[in-house]
Write a structure and sequence with these properties.
The chain is mainly α and 383 residues long. It has 19 helices and no strands.
């Protein structure tokens, strides 16, 4: 079956990648004592949909290419996903761990059981947990297909029930669940729950599956309720900002404490993720200006590599700023974001070029062989 290409997914990937860099720029901006709460809100609150929406896109892509009516070969599916996600995850984890050992002269992370924890929980770098959760979603794909098959029978009611359960579960995990168990491994498992508990993002993943399975109805609903979708997005974004400013100005929270309270797993954060997902899909299903379409297409095309490499860029860029005694003022933070984006995109291009010359590099770092290699391999098979 030919995979249906939906350009809105490319645009969403690109936008989400821009948002992820914004979130991590916000964390670095806290090094400046007088960080602007408004710029920080742009970096850290407006962008909060960025990681969850990747799960929506992943599920949508899987179910649009392998709908429930089609045969599903689980072993073949897992082989492809291990190649596209597990290999890059392991390769980049090793690279980040080697980098840490090199700059810190500390080899402790390679000792047992620490090395196991680093690989199991995605601790080598702060962005890698996404791949760990994604691998768990892939491993349980037969379960999600069965659940989606049940939900599409009554999608509106079923999704509302699942959404309510998601909010309750996330609230308990985010604000009530604590460590302090006698068992070391249980403590570690709970401590790093955000790095591998797929249930934190179950709703948005299943929403992607259902929207793909009912794609014509989904398109019609977005068109029919386009005004309501915009209002819902605006109201939930307003709710995120209202909560954020409330904690800062009325509760006297620090910027970091405020954003650690008003995040994507908070009740309003879950609703904002849904609102943003529907809004951006609706918006990107209509023609865009040429420059915006080009930008989002390029970001979407290289989003995987940019996501994997940008923490390295940020670390060394910030180290150079620190060495030069340049504080990360609000204007410098914006420049830091733009330079990070440019350098990360450039590195993504270089890695792609290197992969075209050495296919095994491409396989290890991106999870796929370069197009030229695949075309050559296909040609040889037909001769």
């Amino acid at each position: 079956m030919n995979k249906q290409h939906i350009v809105a997914l490319d645009y969403i990937r690109g936008l989400a990648m821009l948002g992820v860099i914004g979130i991590h720029t916000g964390a670095y901006s806290l090094s400046y004592p007088d960080s602007s709460p408004h710029l920080f809100a742009l970096f850290e609150i407006f962008t909060r949909f960025s990681v969850p929406i990747f799960f929506f896109v992943s599920a949508f892509g899987l179910f649009i290419s392998q709908p429930l009516a089609a045969d599903f070969n689980y072993p073949a599916f897992m082989r492809r996903r291990f190649k596209s996600v597990l290999l890059p995850y392991l390769a980049w984890s090793i690279l980040y761990m080697l980098h840490y050992t090199w700059i810190s002269r500390d080899a402790g992370i390679w000792h047992l059981p620490t090395v196991y924890e680093y690989f199991f929980f995605g601790l080598a770098s702060y962005q890698l947990y996404f791949l760990v959760i994604l691998l768990w979603f892939y491993a349980l794909m037969p379960l999600w297909r069965q659940l989606t098959r049940l939900i599409v029978k009554a999608p509106a009611t079923s999704l509302l029930i699942l959404l309510f359960g998601q909010i309750v579960f996330n609230y308990y995990s985010s604000y009530l669940l604590k460590t302090g168990f006698d068992n070391y491994y249980l403590n570690v498992a709970v401590q790093y729950r955000m790095n591998y508990w797929i249930f934190h993002y179950l709703f948005i993943f299943i929403l992607g599956a259902v929207c793909a399975e009912l794609y014509p109805q989904f398109q019609a609903a977005l068109e029919r309720y386009r005004q309501r979708v915009t209002i819902f997005f605006t109201v939930t974004l307003g709710g995120m900002l209202l909560a954020y400013y409330y904690f800062i100005y009325f509760k006297q929270f620090s910027l970091e404490a405020a954003v650690n309270t008003v995040h994507q797993l908070s009740p309003i954060g879950v609703l904002y993720t849904v609102g943003a997902t529907l809004f951006w899909f609706k918006l990107f299903s209509t023609p865009l200006s040429k420059w915006l379409s080009t930008l989002l297409n390029r970001m979407g095309e290289y989003s995987y590599l940019i996501y994997l490499v940008h923490p390295l860029v940020m670390y060394h860029l910030f180290a150079q700023l620190t060495k030069a005694s340049i504080p990360l003022t609000p204007s410098a933070a914006i420049a830091f974001y733009l330079v990070t984006l440019a350098l990360s995109t450039g590195l993504a291009l270089l890695i792609t070029r290197a992969g075209s010359l050495i296919p095994l590099v491409s396989l290890a770092l991106t999870g796929s062989f370069p197009k030229q290699h695949l075309l050559r391999h296909k040609h040889n098979r037909t001769m």
